[in-house]
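Comment thread on ticket #2218

A.B. wrote:
> Attaching the input chain for the structure job we discussed in standup.
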Amino acid sequence: MSVKTLKIDGKEIAIEEGATLLQAAKEAGIRIPTLCHLDGVSDIGACRLCLVEVAGINRLLPACVTEVSEGMNVQTNTPKLKEYRKMIIEMLFAEGNHVCAVCVANGNCELQDLAIEMGMDHSRFPYRFPERDVDVSHDEFGIDHNRCVLCTRCVRVCDEIEGAHVWDVGFRGAAAKVITGLNQPWGTVDACTSCGKCVEACPTGAIFRKGATVGEMDRDRSKLDFIVTARELKQWTR
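C.D. wrote:
> Ran it. Output below, let me know if you need it in another format.
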């Protein structure tokens, strides 16, 4: 496989053809913020937090789904990008009902961490306060759609790693949400193996274990490590 050479933030990088800008930046030790990206599953460019500037292209590109090409000159941390990322985080808070003080993931939430990193102390956008439901029909887990950011990490982990295909995205526009079993209550979906991978993959407190209270969300790093390597090592067991 051929090698492509490019510059990211002025740093010369050589990486194999087919790699993404996000992978190239990671190899070079350059951090690009992400929310929908999860090592071990496919990328879809949903959150747009990894937008970068590429010389000669008059639009911002998502680093997670943009392949490297020869001679690229990429900027990842310009004032424009910082402002866009902060705006995206503000919109995510405004379009949902993210009340950190009563969330199981308070203190262990990627959205919360990104808000702190971006310097967000309020949202310039009016809060929508949508009416969203909570599904606790499953024996072990629950999903609070008020906290969901539609990153679809749960969908991809369930499809590509567990192979159960329980999760999907239903409806359109502001009504879009992740659904289980063609929009059936989670507890009635026989395909669910109760593996908990969706819980570990969720970046917020949207999918949680029953019995957890405020700030008690604790990620199982061993399961996340499994997600990273499962496809390559053919480890399809629970």
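A.B. wrote:
> Thanks. Noting for the ticket: The longest strand covers residues 3-8.
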